[in-house]
Amino acid sequence: MKVTQVAIRPTESSNAAGRPALTPELLAASGARYSRNNEGLEAILGKIDPENLDRSVESIFRMIDYGHQSIADMVPVAMFLDGVSIWLAYTIWALCPTAGGQESSTRYLRLEVDALGEPEPLGIPADQAAAWRSLMAQAFQAYQEVLAYWEQVAAEDPAVTRIPGDLLRDPGPSAARTVARMKRNYAFDRARYFLPAAARTNLMLLMSARGWVSLCQHLFSHPLPEAREAAAQIREELRLAAPRMLKHAEAKASIEHGIAEEMSLWRDDARGEASHLAPGSPDSEKPSGAWLEVMPAPGPERFAGDLKYHDNRYAWFGAGLRRCAVRFGWEAVTMAEIRDLNRHRTGTRYCPLVPQGFYYAADQVPSPGQRAEDLDRLRQAAEVGRAAAARGRELLAAGDPSYVYWTLLGTQYPFEHTTTADKFIYEAELRTGVGAHFRYAHQLREALELWYARYPETRGLILEGSAEPE
């Protein structure tokens, strides 16, 4: 793992125009001074000593721990995190829903077994390391075999990829590249369920110093060593951009107790029966079980009228939808989809990480009645995923926090999102576009059908399937 803070430099155009360039803390101090007087920016910048920028922070605004957290929100910091596990990347996004950034995508990259981290830094006990390595090697072998199968399917019948016909007919090089990419997406999307959550990935985040401090507090308070190592490296990099915040970037007893208590609830749940993970179960996949709760604001419901000017997903939503509370979710969603659904910034998402089943895209086999051998082939591969999810659930029931590293991206968990109706509709429109991942598109359509059952007049006004190719 390696964490690197990246500073932001002014553009040549900005320099040529004579615009000021400030360090992150000077930017926050200058903004904070607006709350104390109305002298204007030039007067504030006149207090900066170019020979001592750090001391100038205090001459502009005596921060003393930044005074209050809103000032720390004005300190922009970008960091790149190389070589973290997919599980830790998911956890960081869950803790930082408003951060900007990207993560290495399983939709575009073929991963090999060398992407797997070592067991010791992950907190896997030494007496379990050999068994863990063996299971993860089987998972990667299954991933390669299943990926080859889906590549073959796409090559034999491009129609199953749902690539638009005009692209397939276009002889131009640009269209050819797009078609090749979408074929790769098709195969990667269906094979990624066999990737281990312990596989290494990279992510970049841009957020305020306050966000980084809050992240450090949670990661330092986590029982897994990978999380604490990430917090330690982030704090050291934060020293370069916002040194005055370092004293707050430490473990918090309240967070430690909260994580422990929540994990104890998951542990109790894991001690119950999970029929889809039992050896010899007919199918490891648990049905997704979509559900939807709606609490409209007081007054007459006119949701169709609220969509009158809604001609794209960024367009106007009426007040009724903006005021309507929506809580929706599924009983079983794979970690692969949760990583995407988790990135929506609005509201609150909750995901108790108690394995429920293992999904492996058997429903995607074209003409399954004629491809019984293909289904058998996938079911045999899925036994690795079932075993991994079952082992993870067993270790969770025993109170071992490293259980997450035994699971794969096809491991299913409950997932829910609480937000407002306009944001729910936006999410459904975004996640059902051309080229959207087939599985979360299916699940968002499940949720939309529950919405239409309540509000049939909105069918056709919600622009599902209209988002641009990913």
What are the salient characteristics of this protein?
5-stranded antiparallel sheet, alpha+beta, Gyrase A, domain 2
Description:
The chain is of the alpha+beta class and 470 residues long. The protein has two domains: 1-105 and 200-251, Gyrase A, domain 2; 275-458, 2-Layer Sandwich (Gyrase A, domain 2). Helices cover 46% and strands 13% of the residues. It has 19 helices and nine strands. The strands form two sheets. Strands 5, 6, 7, 8 and 9 form a five-stranded antiparallel beta sheet that branches. It has a four-stranded antiparallel beta sheet with strand order 1-2-4-3. Helix 2 packs parallel to helix 4 and helix 11 packs antiparallel against helix 12. The two termini are 29 Å apart. The model has no long low-confidence stretch (mean pLDDT 91).
- Major sheet: size, sense and barrel closure? 5 strands, antiparallel
User: What would you call the shape?
Assistant: globular
CATH topology of the largest domain: Gyrase A, domain 2
The fraction of residues in strands falls at 5-15%
Task: Look at the structure and give the CATH class of the largest domain.
Answer: Alpha Beta
Count of helical regions: 19
What is the tally of beta strands? 9
- Number of domain units: 2
Averaging pLDDT over every residue, what do you get? 91
Unreliable residue stretches: none
Q: Which CATH architecture of the largest domain would you pick?
A: 2-Layer Sandwich
Termini separation: 29 Å
Residues in helices, as a percent range: 40-55%
As a whole number of angstroms, the C-alpha radius of gyration is 25 Å
Structural class call reads: alpha+beta
Give the ordered list of helices and strands.
EHHHHHEHEHHHHEHHHEHHEHEEHEHH
